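Box S2. Input/output pair 1.
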Amino acid sequence: MKKTIITVVGKDTIGIIAKICNYLAENNMNILDISQTIVQDYFNMMMIVDMNQSDKPFAQVCSELEEIGEGIGVKVRCQLEDIFDKMHRI
């Protein structure tokens, strides 16, 4: 399974989860796990997503999610699960 870690951070606003999740659904990506918190006015979300059914390459997905994030005033970052795991073992 090709898993991707997606993080979204920024000032809380209406529709952040909806825009990100709509993009994932439209591109045949399944959310395996999701966690989101709001601390004062700051939004933080982490998702584990299965990209196996998507026709788009990883780099394109990341770029498009970053553009969506810019449009709603948040930072969106993507990492392949293998790289994320290796980075956080240190």
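Box S3. Input/output pair 2.
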Amino acid sequence: MELKKNPKADLEKRKGLYFEIGLVVILAACLCAFSLKSYDKDDASGNGGQAQDEEIEELDEILDTDVETPPPPPPPAPEEPELNMDQIEVVEDTKEIKEEIKIQEFDEVQNTQIAEVKIEEEVDEEEVKIFTVVENDPEFPGGMDALYKYLAENIKYPQLARDNGITGKVYVTFVVERDGSIANPRILRDIGGGCGAEAIRVVKSMPKWTPGKQRGKAVRVQFNLPVNFNLK
């Protein structure tokens, strides 16, 4: 009797279907494997990395609080110069120091010079003051007659005053100094025509007077002098 194979039990017909089922299973297994590895990696990189960062920060804080920066070292002290005993001179208490005596002498000389200057600056008021009234009036050599004669002989009548017929008295004031010299002549009253300038010229050319005196001492005296201009 010949055995016949059941056509339903023929696996060659279902070979392609089984191959496809196997591929699907393999792909599903691969996908599950990749998903598990990526999850573990994410978990490790997420929670584990964060924990590691927190531990590093705690270590930094501990190091910052515990470790103190040491202060800088002090600067080196300056070296003291060595004393040379050969250059030191020992002075006895009984030895006199000449420098102190020189300083005292200088002070004494300076004080005497200051005192002399102060004495020179003191000026007698009577030597500076100009008197208008004194016990003894100043006098021209030979008296008032000699003065009028001197004026008449030395005055040159100005041509302008002569041409215009100007006549009269010019009043001149001046100071007779303690030595009899004439100082600061000026016009009190002028008649014009050049008469005032001529009167000043003649007064300046006068010889020294006998100075006025107050309490027997020569002083400066203000003197007023009329000078006549008359046409002859």
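Caption for Box S3: Strands lie at 130-131, 168-176, 182-189, 212-214, 217-229. The chain has a mean pLDDT of 76.
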